[in-house]
């Protein structure tokens, strides 16, 4: 295999993990506290929410769509969950269970709205989810009277602070979500159809499948993941607020695109999304330890999104070139077997 082909394959497959390793080494050298066990635990805690949201976003982006409403839906789901879990008429165990179900159901219902409107009236997901962004934010403010909810049961708060061998429980939940998403994409018919629709929707339609059904389900999955992220948020910070989640959609999109999922759909993986979320978390934490302010870090996040899309273009070109160069050459036709046309008439 030639050197150029190897470079193409590395850019396509291993570039994300290599970038993460180099980033960790650089920050460890520049900021001694970065490599401490306490800071590593802090990073794993910080990336948990974005990782879960990014898993749902991956399903949508693989279809060539986008969901801009995840931050506002997160706020709405936390308010619904917070109102349930602080209900004095419920026992702590019942309140926690109903809170989890309520948050997940809230996210799923928002996903149903996004998916059905997109497919029923053939409106681009950018416009529909932009509308849901305002609907969910307004609903969160309305039902909470613009107030923050707190004082959750101790058992609920303890889960958010718990660790297993130094690894936060909420990160283990996020990791389980990633593995479940990977299984769905790699081992189920639904996952294969998501890739197929992202690559060629018309071909899927001509094969007898209805792409609209899979698209709606993808938005429901995305909403459900936001509901799960809302529970993790409540566990971690012990509050539910109608104004939280601003800019979370940008972090999720950045994690997915950095992880190698193409904005045009059809290419990507859950492991890549996990690595993308890890890069975002490591970068944010490292810059903070180096003394960079919040506003500057927001600028860096925006720049990363642009750079990630540019890299995605080069990655797509690398994929096409490596596929072409690794393809076997067609068999050469022997001269004596070549058809020379009809012989002379007698």
3D structure, described in words:
With 346 residues, this protein is mostly helical. It has a domain at 48-246. It is 73% helix and 1% strand. The protein has a two-stranded antiparallel ribbon. A hairpin with a 2-residue loop joins strand 1 and strand 2 (167-168). Helix 8 (169-187) runs antiparallel to helix 13.
Produce a short descriptive summary.
The chain is mainly alpha-helical and 346 residues long.
How do the helices and strands follow one another from N- to C-terminus? HHHHHHHEEHHHHHHH
| Proportion in helices | over 70%
- Which term fits the overall shape? globular
Give the count of helical stretches. 14
Specify the structural class.
mainly alpha
Quick tags:
two-stranded antiparallel ribbon; 73% helix; mainly alpha; 346 residues
Walk me through the topology.
Elements: H1 3-13, H2 15-30, H3 37-62, H4 70-85, H5 92-120, H6 125-144, H7 154-161, E1 163-164, E2 167-168, H8 169-187, H9 189-199, H10 201-206, H11 211-237, H12 248-258, H13 270-289, H14 294-326
Antiparallel strand pairs: 1-2
